Amino acid sequence: MIIFGFLPQISKTKAVAVGVSVQQMSCGGEQAGPTSLDDLAVFRRAFYDCLSSRADALFELTDAVLCAEGPVTTLVGLTLTAEHRRGHGGLYDGLGSGRIEVERLSRSLVNLPVPRDAHGRITLAVDVSPWLRPDAATSPDRSFCHVYGRGKGQAQMIPGWPYSFVAALEPGRTSWTALLDAVRLGPGEDATTVTATQLREVIHRLQHAGQHKPGDADILIVFDAGYDVTRLAFLLADLPVELLGRLRSDRVFSFPAPPRAPSTTGRPSKHGPEFALAQAATQPEPDALTLTDTRRYGTARACAWNRLHPRLARRAAWESHEGPLPVIEGSIIRLQVDRLPGDRSPKPVWLWSSRPQLTTSELNRLWQAFLRRFDLEHTFRFLKQTLGWTRPRIRTPEQGQRWTWIIIAAHTQLRLARHLTSDLRRPWEKPITEPHRLTPTRIRRGFRNLRPKTTLPASAPKPSRPGPGRPPGSKNRQPTRRHDVGKNAPTCANKAKTG
Prior knowledge:
Layout: H1 22-25, H2 37-49, E1 51-53, H3 55-67, H4 88-97, E2 99-100, H5 102-110, E3 123-132, E4 143-147, E5 156-169, E6 177-184, H6 191-208, E7 219-223, H7 229-235, E8 241-247, E9 252-254, E10 274-276, E11 288-294, E12 298-310, E13 330-337, E14 349-353, H8 360-371, H9 375-385, H10 397-416, H11 440-445, H12 447-450, H13 492-498
Parallel strand pairs: 3-7, 7-8
Antiparallel strand pairs: 1-2, 3-5, 4-5, 5-6, 8-14, 9-10, 9-12, 11-12, 12-13, 13-14
């Protein structure tokens, strides 16, 4: 349930907090400085150098995505743009036989300006977005993806390719994020382990690029519901990160064990009184409390309880853990507002922070930073509805990986061009007086006029003739192998067909 999407509209005329000023409550900050045309040209050249095979075809395909008129609806339709000088055969050959050095391209992304808040802190958001392929029976490595419906209880499990994205969030209300990495989750893989490995690699790249140095504030990583944030905090404990994740309302945590009485025998207790999110009777007075007036949602009341940990058991991910089970302490945050559009009795949002002790200023910083996580939903919508990330009906996951990184490279170029293009406003659209408030869709409209001013490393296509193809009247006597969803091994029927 996505709520409080634009909650940080704090009224400047009236803002009340317990021991916190308006300046301390603001999570907005100065954005990264405007990029120049040279910065865009340098990245375009670096992206071209990362294309180790079929470089010209893949680079022109990226330009076609950026310069196409309107949303991308079909893959072959991109060959009709003037920026794509090759035929449809070259396009499919680039996706099928091309090669992108993903590690090299990932290093190029972290070398770009990374958004920070007012205190210079980097905030990362992690989320999974599915590429649904329900009818692609011949595509391997599909998993069941959880898809939310419009109505209550309308969630579905649809076959597809789930991708885990990591993006740096900008301060303030915006639809821009800086995509840094994308990893496909394969069938049977532990999402928590894959996410921890992905975040570790992204943090190491940020440190190697000089974006995070010793002594800087810890990198804040924000998660939505569905992640085991406490286990992620345990797996990433050696990194300079701070984790903040959303909790289900039925979770139960424990306070620290009380001091042991003298001359007490037996094993000492590891857990204290329980703290149930759904039972107000188990919740004592909070350790920190803030009240913030908002324009649309009334008063936002944030409460924090320090030093709470989950009671772990030797099952699921902790089944093979060696040694005693750890005690992972953190803080519980409850966020409650007066009203929501269409809901006069909204339910509270529960968060868990890996920081065991929270002050009032840290409490406001965390819950407002969590709301910025929903900016990643705008990025997913733009990737799918405008750039056409999930539109191609390609077969193999390798082709999907290449297309995904092409979309990431295209989105990054739009982010670099947000101060370089003019607003080509439609007559029915409202004018935007501030250039930095332009959305990715409006920046994309003017990219076609900006492209000739940047570097164009792709060479002209060579004349060629189409192949003969399959002889007329012949039949395909080698049908494509069909794959089960969520399984790597073929079924007996597939073994009989392929045998």
